[in-house]
Amino acid sequence: MSELKKIRLIGLDGASFEILKPMMDAGRLPVLSNLIDKGASGVLRSNTVPFTPQAWTSVITGNNPGKHGVFGFVRQKPGQPPVFLSSRSIKGEKLWSWFSRRGLKSLIVNVPVTFPPEPLNGLMVTGMMTPSEKVDFTYPVDLKSRILKQWPDFRLDVPSGLNRSRDLSIMDELDSAMSVRADMLMTLIKEETPDLVFIVFVTPDRIQHAFSQLIDPRSTAYNSETAQRWRERIYESYTKLDGVIGRLLASGQDTNTIFISDHGFTIERGAFFTNDFLSSLGLLALKKNPGYGLAGSAIGKLNISALKRLIPNKIIKKTIKFTKEAIDWSKTSAYSSPVTQQGIYVNLSGREPQGVIASGDYERVRDEIIDALHALKDPKTDTPIVQARRREEIFSGASIECIPDIILDFELSGLEAKDSVLGGEAVQWSDGGSRGIHHRDGVFIAHGPDVRAGSFDGLRLEDIAPNVLALAGLDVPRGLDGKLRDDIFKIKVKEVAG
Q1: What is the pTM for the complete model shown?
Q2: pLDDT digits (tens, 9 = 90+) for 104-128
Q3: In this structure, what CATH number is given to the domain that contains residue 254?
Q4: Which residues constitute the domain of residue 79?
């Protein structure tokens, strides 16, 4: 058995080197810049569909979504209410469970998909996907009352999105929430002296969902008047996060520390309306509805940039709700998954409540859809806009049924699939300056006595859990998808335990 060592895993939700680099070059992020210069760093590849629930759960478990069973925020079948995913949806062991089994203490703060909190040897404050501060969001339960009394300005999350991009008010909210969380974290670290600290800071993700178009050099709006006026204030929040990271490092100078993001960001070049595409193939049918002809066709004639500028969010939400009611399931062979799954489900008989496709036709329908998708070309590059693959070509495991039958990968074209029906063209291109969307290239930075300095590649989210265990001196369970990286870490564990 190796020597047991403390370790810290710090999540920077949504952090992207493309966005951080201009700030580093300008000297705005001295702590992170120093860590990269003296430690290990590289791109951390997210899941093929890089959204928060499945991404952080791959970090937590060391496995792909086909094994851990989390893919998107909800599971929903036609005609049935959505089932919201939670910590109870996760299949398999979680990172802190291995620490608890060895009698080691963990401090878990703000990690997504941890609600409801579960017993562990240590403390837990749940993160994203926690309903509100009114529920029991801590373990032990009485930690909640202490947090709300000692840090009355504590917030579980700060909602973001394009609706928060009209002014800079979200920046003060994010700064306040981060400051409170950092003070709470430092207090609990000092009191508990945990062996594992796992904290996620959401500031990068929330900023980038609102303002990527102003801070990402790839955006056509990067040099706009608004960007010039607002960027300084936006950068201030990243600098404050850098200062929090410095405080964490100072409190554990001889501790191995890993910084990761669950995904990166890029600039959206447009939207792909999956249901409209399937309708054009004759694989999705709509009920006859006069209201759709007025609202849907009018919206469908707008390009995606105009859609976001002119249509209120509440109308967009109503359109999405209308989609579910507008589809004629008795005449529909396939339909779009929710946005956070970026895929297509076959309306399979015996599996779907109103399924019409016989099991013998399942592969034929998938082949037809994939061939049609690959025929769609980017007008600027004349290359396919999407790489469509069967789910089993990407994922594996006993929980693969939680994943759509076909996965849509728009990484090269910069599109994002939408699950509403607008009645227009399936592909709606934007001007490249409308908003940021998730990208698979996240951030990995490591520092500590057992970290080899240098730039590294080939890292995946699934690799984090086994390497955290190895750095802590714990056995690494056999069967994890993640791989040990002794080229990055000075780890003595070579063989995994049974």
Answers
A1: 0.92
A2: 999 999 999 999 999 999 999 999 9
A3: 3.40.720.10
A4: 7-266+438-472
